[in-house]
Amino acid sequence: MTSALPRPGHEDDRPATADRLLVRRPGPRELRPERTHRRRRTLEISLAVAVPLLLVLLWQLAADRAWLDDRIYPAPSTILADGWDRALAGELWPDVWATLRRVLAGYAVGTVSGCLLGLLMGSLSLVRAALEPLLDALYVVPKLALLPVFLNMFGLGEGPQVALVATTVFFFVWISTMAAVMAIPSGHRDAGQVFGAGPWQMFRHVLLPASLPAVLVGARIAAGVAVLVIVASEQIAATDGLGHLIFDSRALFQNDVMFVGIVCVAVLGVLFSELVRLAGRFLTPWAPRDRGRPRS
Fold first, then answer.
1. If you ran DSSP here, which 8-state letter would residue 221 be given?
2. Higher pLDDT among residues 82 and 9, named by residue
3. Between the CA of residue 159 and those of 26, 166, 268, what are the distances in Å?
4. Rg of the chain over CA atoms, in angstroms?
5. What one-character DSSP code corresponds to residue 198?
6. Which H/E stretch holds residue 222?
7. Dihedrals φ, ψ of 5, to 5°?
8. Where are the beta strands (DSSP E) in the chain?
9. Which of 15, 75, 146, 270 has fewest C-beta within 10 Å?
10. CB 242 within 8 A of CB 231
11. Where are the domains of the chain?
């Protein structure tokens, strides 16, 4: 709502409708920002839960009414019951653990190596000039195309799976880290030099805090891609894991088991990504969290 107010000092020498200021009255967002933010957050959470739940209910209805062939698309209740039975019988956990073990090992190697090389290339232009063309060429190669190379290098077993995840994660973290370091304003470095910061102090107090939020964004994206890559790899060159479970069940026409594996992959990917996000919030308390949150 707006109201018109006359300009100070012009009340008598101007017409009543001329030269007025439009002033907007403060609304609920300005008067009660915390309450508005809570309502907004509640609405966002409700939508995030309601939309998937609605889709699952529609799927269940379609299966019950025989709109879908339940041999190909089992009902959600059937998938849930089968997953529960397999979990209680201990048949599901070996595959979950095999996938999780490979993802964590490859993610750790790829994150550390990508972060270190990104910091080095972002800080030293000569190193960047020497390595960036080669890494750019390797980046565009589909990572699954490297699986035969890793099989030749490490043989059958955990090595090729871990190496494939590590390579995939490395490129995401390397690019985000190098770009974050290069985007640091030169004034930050100048201020550090003015105060006599040495190389380690410059890294510890300037480069790392300024680049870490962007680095963690790349790490979170890499977490989801790591799960995607390991599942695809397990379908090709593994005898266990969720990817093998999905592919093998489909070949045996056990579509309910196949969907159990797909649900487990989705849950694993979401949990892994959220874990990285929470770690980022802990490591970067100075970074902005929510653009919709009112500032004090």
1. H
2. 82
3. 62, 10, 21
4. 27
5. -
6. helix 208-237
7. -125, 140
8. 2-6, 20-24
9. 15
10. yes
11. 21-68, 77-283
Residue with tokens 């707006």, as numbered in its chain: 2
d(CA 159, CA 145): 16
Helix, strand, coil percentages, rounded to 5, for the chain: 75, 5, 25
Rounded distance between C-alpha atoms, residue 84 and residue 155, angstroms: 35
The one-character DSSP state at 290 is: -
3-state SS string over 66-87?
A: CCCCCCCCCCHHHHHHHHHHHH
What tokens does 275 get? 């874990």
Tokens of 225: 């891609």
Q: DSSP 3-state assignment of 97?
A: helix
What is the value of pTM for the model shown? 0.78
| CA geometry: angle 54, 55, 57, nearest 5 deg | 65
Contact 150, 159 (CB under 8 A): yes
Vertex 116: Cα angle to 115 and 122 (nearest 5)? 85
Assign domain 77-283 to its CATH architecture: Orthogonal Bundle (1.10)
Q: What is the pLDDT of residues 207-242, one digit of tens each?
A: 788 888 888 888 999 998 999 999 989 888 888 889
Does residue 291 register a pLDDT over 50?
no
C-alpha 254 chain-centroid distance: 31
